[in-house]
């Protein structure tokens, strides 16, 4: 019986790892980069939220809140 429960736990761990697209450390690096890029255009009033969803393709969801858009010159 013990072997059966060990196998079930191992299977659960494998399936859980397969659903994880990137590591937590990698996600932190991405969020830091996104905050740096977005703060060049907006005055952020909170952190950036980042989420990946797996389907036929990988959907990348990024949300952030800003107090205002930073002024910048006209691009021609």
Distance between the termini: 71 Å
Number of strand segments: 4
Radius of gyration: 20 Å
Shape: elongated
Query: Structural class from helices and strands?
Result: alpha+beta
Order of helices and strands: HHEEEE
The proportion of residues forming helix, as a percent range, comes to 40-55%
Number of helical stretches of at least 4 residues:
2
* Average pLDDT number: 81
Question: β content, as a range?
Answer: 25-35%
Biggest beta-sheet profile: 2 strands, antiparallel
Describe the structure.
The protein is 45% helix and 25% strand. It is elongated and about 65 Å long. A hairpin with a 3-residue loop joins strand 2 (49-54) and strand 3. With 76 residues, the protein is of the alpha+beta class. The longest helix is centred in the N-terminal third of the chain and has 18 residues, at 2-19. Strands 1-4 form a two-stranded antiparallel ribbon. A two-stranded antiparallel ribbon has the order 2-3. It contains 2 helices and 4 strands.
Keywords:
about 45% helix; 2 helices; about 80 residues; alpha+beta; single chain
Summarize the structure.
The protein has 76 residues and is α+β, with helices and mostly antiparallel strands.
């Amino acid at each position: 019986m013990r072997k059966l429960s060990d196998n079930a736990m191992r299977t659960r761990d494998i399936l859980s790892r397969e659903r994880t697209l990137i590591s937590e450390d990698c996600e932190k690096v991405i969020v830091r980069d996104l905050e740096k890029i977005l703060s060049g255009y907006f005055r952020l009033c909170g952190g950036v939220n980042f989420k990946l969803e797996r389907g036929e393709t990988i959907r990348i969801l990024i949300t952030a809140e800003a107090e205002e858009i930073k002024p910048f010159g006209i691009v021609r």
